[in-house]
User: What shape does this take?
Amino acid sequence: MRHGTADIVIIGGGIIGCSIAWRLASAGRRVILCDAGVLGGEASWAGAGMLVPGSEYSRACPELTFALESLAAWPGFAAQLERESDTSIDFELCGALELAGSPAEFEKLRTLATTQRRLGIDCRVVEAQELRGMVPGLTAPLEGAVYFPKEGQVDPRTVTAALRIACQRAGVEIREHTRVTRLIPRDGAVSIESSDGGVIEAARAVIAAGAWSNLIDAGVRLPRCFPVRGHLIGYALSAGSLPHVLRFHHTYAVQRRGGYTIAGTSEEQVGFDRTLDPATVDGIAARAHALAGGIIPAVAQDAWIGFRPGAKRGPSLGRLDDTAIWLAYGHYRNGILLAPATAARIAGEIISSLESRLA
Ligand SMILES: Cc1cc2nc3c(=O)[nH]c(=O)nc-3n(C[C@H](O)[C@H](O)[C@H](O)COP(=O)(O)OP(=O)(O)OC[C@H]3O[C@@H](n4cnc5c(N)ncnc54)[C@H](O)[C@@H]3O)c2cc1C
Assistant: This one.
């Protein structure tokens, strides 16, 4: 059992909680970061790491503005994180292609691209011949694509490994294998109880526990969040064999700089069942091979699952009523993309609230 005090306790050490902890500690705050398992061991370990708002948003909405803000923040976030952790995180804006398999699909993508450009998403239409030159090895019958030159990918496993180092160097106290069970707001502050009987007294707490967030007892009903299981598969391929992120219907492929290539995916609402489904794995492998058989072999080397933090109305970001508790969860399939903007927003709000309390 471990007690303690802190300015801020972060509950959940995925990419979201670690990024917020890093930002707060870098601003001189005393931060304790609790994780039920190990840092970066859940969705932030599983995620493909695509940074592709163009494939996610097609109309003006606050979520699109936030996603574009986060994409724009990624280069600075990555450079600072690499500098402060002495770790390469495999970030690159390699461009992404949304592919069309029929003339009707291509026409729809063209129209969408016009709308997306108006919304501030940088993209252009690519005809079939140019597409084949951009990605030799495509084997699906494709009519063309829309290209998003400023999108890309990052390896989320190296991001959380780097965040661990950056957090430690900034003075964050990391408590792994510490499951928070209850938050009790009192007198403008909050007590944080964990399953081992430990209690931490803090001025502020942040719930960033991904798909598990609303299992925590905060004394009030938290916005709903639920696990959406996804399967991914991986291959060790030659570096540079897949130059851009590919997205085609429910199939995608993304290559790390060293050549490791990931294909996905599935979306299943099966609770927290961690069983790999061989039929789903085979299905993804067949789709990926049919798409780019000149690059992606028929059989993958690795397969894994992860739980996206699903939320019907987008992520819950901000203060919970007038308590000392902040919410930062429900990023669904875009938590890697949204981490820099989420960290900036949540850390900024908490710092302002602590400063105005003292003023
Ligand atoms: C198959 C798949 C593909 C994906 N692809 C992409 C992609 O290409 N691009 C993209 O942007 N996003 C992608 N995502 C989504 C992205 O991975 C998630 O949105 C993001 O990782 C969520 O981060 P998080 O920190 O909120 O949650 P997590 O990484 O799940 O972290 C939550 C942490 O909280 C801890 N925890 C839980 N309960 C407690 C508790 N009671 N007390 C203390 N700690 C607790 C857990 O142990 C965990 O470490 C994908 C996800 C999956 C599963």
